[in-house]
Design brief:
mainly beta; 207 residues
Amino acid sequence: MFKSSLLLVSLLPLALSNPIVSRQASSYPPITFGVIAARSASSVHLQPVNANGQAFWIGKDTTTYCPLTNQTQCPPGIETVFAVGGGGAGLDTEVPGGQRIYVAPSGALRFTQAHSSFIPPGSAVQTFNATTGTANGGLGVFVFEGLGATGFLACPVNTNGTGPYQVFADVEGLSDKDVPGRCKDECLGFGALTAPYDGEAAAWQYI
């Protein structure tokens, strides 16, 4: 579990075609972690980044699904866990084939639907990297270095600048029309801090 790392994050400064990255199909062992936003004196500071609706959000709950008849055999499915290795990124799931993370041409950080390999043309599936910190509460950082990106943004869905916030990579050419509130200046740059996760697969699949 990574939530305990939130207790120490306030002491830290703001940090700034391959196989799908998953436990069941990978030629390299991925590292697994949760992501916590760091942006001092903002509404996104110390908030988790969650998978919801094939996108990533701050201020929305993680959404998952498990098809097993005996629900006691399902993974917890209550938090979003990333898996990164070899430059690629995915979600930590049990679903056959896994779920890949990518950056769409619009800059949105997204993930594939379960049982589907479709990714929009022009998306980036590589140049993801992460460090995980330590099990005693130290944190690492998650980065995306493709498409001319200079970091991550939390972009509010409401025109008054309030959340929830959809996560984008600040890619070259990102403009007002790409973000949900239609105003890029309302987006908040943040450090994507990583908190190590060492349990079993976090979810059957994310939805």
